[in-house]
Design a protein that fits this description.
Herpes Virus-1, 3 domains, zinc-finger, single chain, 44% helix, elongated, ubiquitin protein ligase activity, Lon_prtase_N, 365 residues
Length: 365
Amino acid sequence: MDTSKVIVGLLLHLLRKCLTSGKLWINSISKWKETKKSSCSYVRAVEVQNYDKNDFECTLCYRYLYQPVTTPCGHSFCRTCLDRCLDHSTSCPLCKTSIKMFLAERRTAVTEFVETAMQTVMASECRERKQQHDEEMDELAAAGKDSQHGIPIFIATLAIPTISCPLHVFEPRYRLMIRRCMESGTREFGMCVPMENAENGYADSGTMLEIRDIEYTPDGRSIVNTVGSRRFRIVSKSVKDGYNTAAVEFLQDVVPTSNLSELHKLHDCVHKLASKWYESIEHMTKRRILVHYGPMPPVEGEYWTIPNGPAWMWWVIVILPLDHRIQLSILNETSLKRRLEILHKIVHCVLVQQHPQQAPAEGSQ
């Protein structure tokens, strides 16, 4: 028998089988799509006595489920309720089964079956529950708009306008606070420095931080990249769900209308002096400053009209070896001229201490 003919025959047989299998597979896929399409438009009638609305209650907030999420162990909760529990523990709130992988993979997608079932058998209750949630989000989104809506306060360090402030968020109260800032769309919160003798343990003024981006870790912690924006003075302090809040009034520099030439002269003098001091810093220190804060910002046009003044001035304030109390007093100052005068004295003193022979006389231009 010719071996080549046998091999060719086997190959033709296999080819016919593959083609036949391919047709069957395509037909089965087509039938599955048709079945799925027809089943989506079909809603099965449910007898009232066969379900209980209480079955759709969240066992954490005792309200009807909103955006229900089901854990691997089969328990359903409101997404926001489950998130708050996972801030404290990586176990299921109901049966205490470990759901570390669930948290690590951040599988918090809404369970469509539960949501569809609720919308089918209790549509009016679902609308009411959604309205409740929307009202809560509107309340959070109104933070800082008036004295009735306080801003969330993060107590950690002194934030400075225009300066980046990366944060490692691991405390449950701050996890909740940051999540609410993102969900409400405000993407900002207040930062205050701790003070032992102050009310509630933190300063009476601070800076708003705008959230640029967030990177989550598998265990629920997060690295939050923020940048300083508006300054504020606290009117009253309170607490909400474990984290601090405060009614505030925002601070802006008073725009000068006279003696602008004198202000420009003072500004240029302080800028030149600060630049001289920065150039005199040792190489390794300067390198660390560049890594953390970047180079000195350029002078803006019409800098005297900016609500917080020129950015270079805040850059110098944050890298100077100053006590937080001095920085805080400068932060509260709403006169650009006064702030420049304070900065001029500070930089001059630092230069005198570092280079007694080379430092210029105070007040020299």
